[in-house]
């Protein structure tokens, strides 16, 4: 009888020990994941694109959207590097979209998953043609709006929505014809709408992105407001370049043929 009475106690102690081990394992795994995310964000801030990609590639089968959207961004950033061959660029572009798609499937409430899904969907349109790219335009806009809804303080999502508006404001006539063939009500936008988003992004996070400064200048130019165009284009020109994109923006603003009036040369 005494033996029988000890069984439940021993069993209980065994279960408790198992639970403690399992709990410690979960805590360790969470701490390791947090460390990996911190390391990834540090590498991103330093512009170490290739190291970042290799780090995050270890988590490509993860169920955590925080790893997956970062991997989508890293794949995309890697595809944009100058030394990447055309076929590798295409592979990385489609790979980035798959990671963004998976991130969204794992966590619909993750604002960054919506943002990078929209960006990557737009990117693959460059390979699938104007018709597909325009056909995806409403989906892209919806995901950007959802990203902003989930995180109104993310300046990048606001900027990209501004870029979406600018692109449709300056759509070429043949692209408008394609849009009219696809949609009963084709997407439309104005330079004023684009400008409002770029200004909002700057308000949320001042001087966060060289391209936002450039797009503010271009929006004001399109609206024939030369004074404000000069102000923002000079800011874009003088922005300290940290990334390849920053360097490209700087080049765009110092070219003499950037504007017919050469407004920056004044």
What report would you give on this structure?
- This protein is mostly helical and 266 residues long.
- The protein has 3 domains: 1-128, Serine Threonine Protein Phosphatase 5, Tetratricopeptide repeat, CATH 1.25.40; 129-194; 209-266, no CATH class.
- The protein is 76% helix and 0% strand.
- α2 runs antiparallel to α3 (65-79), α3 packs antiparallel against α4 (86-106) and α3 (65-79) packs parallel to α5 (111-128).
- The protein is globular and about 75 Å long.
- Belongs to the RMDN family.
- It holds the Pfam family RMD1-3.
- Interacts with microtubules.
- This is Regulator of microtubule dynamics protein 1.
Strand-helix topology:
Elements: H1 2-45, H2 49-57, H3 65-79, H4 86-106, H5 111-128, H6 130-135, H7 137-150, H8 155-169, H9 173-182, H10 191-204, H11 210-222, H12 226-237, H13 244-254
Helix pairs in contact: 1-2, 2-3, 3-4, 3-5, 4-5, 5-7, 7-8, 8-10, 10-11, 11-12, 12-13
Instruction: Return the CATH class of the largest domain.
Output: Mainly Alpha
Topology pattern, helix = H, strand = E: HHHHHHHHHHHHH
Largest sheet, in brief, is: none
Q: Averaging pLDDT over every residue, what do you get?
A: 87
Given helix and strand content, the structural type is mainly alpha
* Alpha-carbon distance between the two ends: 100 Å
If you compute it from the alpha carbons, what radius of gyration comes out, rounded to the nearest whole angstrom? 24 Å
Q: How many domain modules?
A: 3
The share of residues in helices is over 70%
Keywords: Cytoplasm, Cytoskeleton, Repeat, Signal, TPR repeat
Subcellular location: Cytoplasm, Cytoskeleton
Pfam families: RMD1-3 (PF21033)
GO molecular function: microtubule binding
């Amino acid at each position: 009888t005494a033996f029988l009475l000890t069984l439940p106690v021993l069993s209980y102690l065994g279960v408790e020990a198992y639970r403690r081990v399992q709990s410690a394992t979960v805590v360790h795994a969470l701490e390791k994941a947090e460390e990996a995310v911190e390391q990834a964000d540090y590498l991103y801030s330093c512009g170490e694109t290739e190291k970042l990609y290799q780090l995050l590639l270890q988590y490509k089968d993860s169920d955590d959207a925080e790893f997956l959207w970062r991997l989508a961004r890293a794949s995309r950033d890697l595809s944009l590097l100058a030394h990447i061959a055309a076929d590798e660029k295409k592979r990385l572009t489609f790979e980035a979209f798959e990671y963004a798609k998976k991130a969204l499937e794992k966590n619909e409430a993750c604002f960054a998953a919506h943002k990078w899904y929209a960006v990557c969907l737009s990117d693959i349109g460059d390979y699938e043609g104007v018709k597909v790219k325009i056909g995806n335009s409403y989906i892209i806009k919806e995901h950007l709006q959802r990203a902003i809804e989930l995180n109104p303080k993310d300046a990048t999502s606001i900027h990209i929505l501004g870029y979406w508006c600018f692109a449709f404001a300056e759509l070429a006539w043949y692209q408008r014809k394609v849009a009219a063939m696809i949609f009963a009500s084709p997407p439309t936008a104005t330079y004023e709408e684009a400008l409002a988003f770029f200004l909002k992004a700057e308000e949320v996070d001042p001087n966060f992105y060289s391209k936002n400064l450039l797009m503010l200048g271009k929006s004001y130019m399109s609206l024939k407001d030369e004074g404000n165009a000069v102000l923002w284009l000079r800011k874009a020109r003088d922005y300290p370049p940290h990334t390849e994109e920053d360097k490209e923006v700087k080049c765009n603003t110092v070219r003499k043929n950037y504007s017919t009036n050469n407004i920056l040369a004044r």
